[in-house]
Amino acid sequence: MKYIKFLVIGILFGIVMTKSEAISWYRIQEMFRFQSFHMYGIIGSALAIGILLVQLIKIKGLKTYQGETIQLKDKNFSISRYLFGGIIFGFGWALSGACPGPMYTLIGNGFSVFIVVILSALLGTYVYGLLRGRLPH
Amino acid sequence: MIEILRQPWSWYISGPLIALIMFLLLWVGGNFGVSSTLRSICTFSGAGKNCEFFDFNWKSQHWNLVFVLGGVIGGYLASTVLQNPEPLTINNNTIEDLASIGIGFNGKIAPAELFSWNSLLTLKGFLVLIVGGFLVGFGARWAGGCTSGHAISGLSNLQLPSLIAVIGFFIGGLVMTFLIFPLIF
Predict the structure, then answer these.
(1) What ipTM did this prediction achieve?
(2) Chain B: nearest CA to A35, how far in angstroms?
(3) Which of B159, B135, B143 is nearest to A137 (CA)?
(4) How deeply is B121 buried, as exposed, middle or buried, from its count of CB atoms within 10 A (0-12, 13-18, 19+)?
(5) Per-residue pLDDT tens over the stretch A10-63
(6) d(CA B125, CA B21)
(7) Burial category of B11 from C-beta neighbours within 10 Å (exposed 0-12, middle 13-18, buried 19 and up)
(8) Number of other CB atoms surrounding residue B50 within 10 Å
(9) Contacts of B99 (CB under 8 A, 6+ apart)
(10) DSSP state for residue B118 in the 8-state scheme
């Protein structure tokens, strides 16, 4: 039962991703071709509100509903892993039109072939794990 | 009410709701980062036996797997109960550009000729579904996060590494769209 709140938030996430059309391969193409403001509006407004909420957590010292400190870890600085990893991710995002969240949501939308896309993403994750020691970080 | 919810949701409704989802996840003791679930599933499948990167306590990430299960259910509800009766509309220039490389548009959320089980046996389908998925999984883990972890969570927390990652996402996406798509489609 302790997981039911995560299920509910996940359902909201799936609904928002679908109704916003952020799961659409065409919407991602529109974004990368700079032919619509839609995706930039979604990411930009999420970010504007997100920055406010994170500042609120930090300034007010907000806790979780169970009274624990909210974990906002700083990421270790590097250029190569974020830039090179990001570029590889961008190749895949433009090809498949889906980042990991939409991959799951698209299955719920009836695109069962995304099971294969997720299996490929799992393989990609696994191969990264194997090559990790040989990649710049 | 349901008629209003069935319409496509504008960016200024959807974006703040995504920020709210990030906040709610933090408030209940999680965090917003979907690609981490891929690593958890690898560990669950036994990848930790021969690779140290996957040898971690994946059970501490159970909540995230439940979250993405919710993402599947939400996708189902949004495409049934809340289904938009109208076809998708996108910019005409995008439709023309895609038509020039042989990809049609019929108002669905993805091109049916690429996103079907049959297309797995074609070169284009293989590239989009198999290679695309592989690169997303590989790149997200190398970069330490995906759109949710970096573009939303990381940038909301003003993390410079996340900005570098997001710049990388766009370099990759633009190179793929403008330089590589014309070669493969």
Answers:
(1) 0.96
(2) 6
(3) B143
(4) exposed
(5) 999 999 999 999 999 999 999 999 999 999 999 999 999 999 999 999 999 999
(6) 33
(7) buried
(8) 10
(9) B105
(10) G
CB neighbourhood size of B28 (10 A): 18
Q: Does A3 touch chain B (CB under 8 A)?
A: yes
A96 closest CB neighbour out of B132, B150, B174 = B132
Across the interface, whether the CB atoms of A117 and B70 are under 8 A apart is answered: no
Distance between A34 CA and the closest CA of chain B, angstroms: 9
- Residues composing chain A: 137
A115 touches chain B (CB under 8 A): no
Average the pLDDT over B153-180 and give the result: 98
Task: Locate B141 and state its tokens.
Answer: 């883990």
Tell me which chain B residues have a C-beta less than 8 angstroms from the C-beta of A117.
129-130, 132-133, 136
Measured between CA atoms, how close is B122 to chain A, in angstroms?
Answer: 14
Using the structure block, give the residue that is written with the tokens 């495409």.
B79
CA-nearest of A37, A26, A116, A28 to B109 is A26
B54-59 mean pLDDT: 94
Tallying the residues shown for chain B, one arrives at 185
Name, in order, each residue with C-beta under 8 angstroms of B83's C-beta and a sequence gap of 6 or more. Answer: B6
Which amino acid is located at B177 in the chain?
T
